[in-house]
Amino acid sequence: MDSRAITEAFSESLPLTGNIEPNLECAIRHVLDNPGSLVRPRMVYQVATAYGLSDSSARDLSIALEYFHTASILFDDLPCMDNGLERRGAPCTHVVFGESGTILTALSLINRAYGLTWRAIADSARDRQAEARMYLEQCLGVQGLLNGQSLDLNYSELPHTLATTERIARGKTVSMIRLTLVLPAMLGDSTVRDLQLLERIALFWGLGYQIVDDLKDVLQGPAETGKTAARDVLLNRPNIAAAIGVPDAAKRLERFIALGDRTLQILLRSRPSMNFLNLLRHDLDAELKRVTQRAMDVSEGSLL
Questions:
Q1: What is the pLDDT of residue 99?
Q2: 90: which strand partners?
Q3: Which candidate among 51, 169, 198, 241 keeps its CA 20 to 30 Å from the CA of 216?
């Protein structure tokens, strides 16, 4: 799918019939009409088709995982969580439609996401289906995303260390990257070795993307990020740049990119069809250059 097709699929894969309560319908449309970059569903679709899934299953899975991700953002922005005001360049859903409307919208996305995921899983080889369902539960449930979010909310009671911030990142960010890279391969004709390598790439890239997000929160404003900035320190939430300093966080990001590169090259030797992953790696590198330059500017200005 090209960018236009993915945008249309994101907007149209949650059917809205005429009998839906107007406030809920408007809240859902507000979310569906303001997608992010949609890098995740493009990646899911490419991984899925590279491992032999049908076009329809790859499409269902790509939109399902983006709906899960979007629902997690809606919850994350609520006043009882991070109390965000802006996301993706638009007012957060709870600002416009209230907390109850936002919660129902997030649940609508989750419900549809499970329906699309089960359809994709049912179209895969029978011996892969149980493993895929367990993997989805692991990543989204109390061993993954939910646990990471709870640790995030209770960060004030935890040691403000590198180990703690990365433990939380593994639960939140890495869990979603694992679903993006590993689940579609698991539903296809992947080998055990492929899955191991994809798990490692998901870890390195997930931690890397979290560092990028943390650096942006510290160094950039809403105009640059498209969302409420400087929330981590204000709310006493985990931020690796705050825990170990901006320069060391940038160096750690470089290390994760290097480890991810090494692992990706091993994967590509046996799976050259996965070469498109280099594009995502280049995006991460570009973010590194931007935040590293900003970190250097801050250091030179003696603001650390």
A1: 97
A2: 87
A3: 198
